[in-house]
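REQUEST FORM: STRUCTURE PREDICTION
Request ID: SP-0412
Submitted by: Lab K.M.
Chain count: 1
Length (residues): 146
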Amino acid sequence: MAATKRVYGPKLLLLAALVLTAYFLPVAVSTGRDADNLDRRGAVTDARVVEVRHGRSRTIVVRYEVPGREPVTATCDSCDDRLDVGERVQIRYDPDDPTMHVEQVGRASHRSVSVFGWWAVGLIGATALGIPAWLVLRKLRRLHWC
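STATUS: Completed
RESULT:
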């Protein structure tokens, strides 16, 4: 009697697709919610660039006035990386938490991350659904049902 050969590749691919979907889905939902909150409730003000950090990419740190509070210093998520210290830039921030989710007006970084996340979820999810369908069809072909 001949030994049957086990094929683990498709099952591992399915597992990887499910793990990646589990990672990208919350990222897409969270960043989309952040972007929607900034669109609906975000306050717009002028800020001054106070620091430019160099690393894998340039990180822009801005300082701005928030009504009823001390001046706030925060990292701008989407500020143009060509900005230099001392330059002024118009930003949008969350009035409930002015140091989080700061973005340059007209350059929405959270929206881009959310769109990428949803595309990733869609593509990986289609792969996760396609692999079991392929396995079933392969088995049916062996039984000469299709």
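NOTES: Residues 69 and 126 are 48 Å apart (CA to CA).
Reviewed by: T.R.
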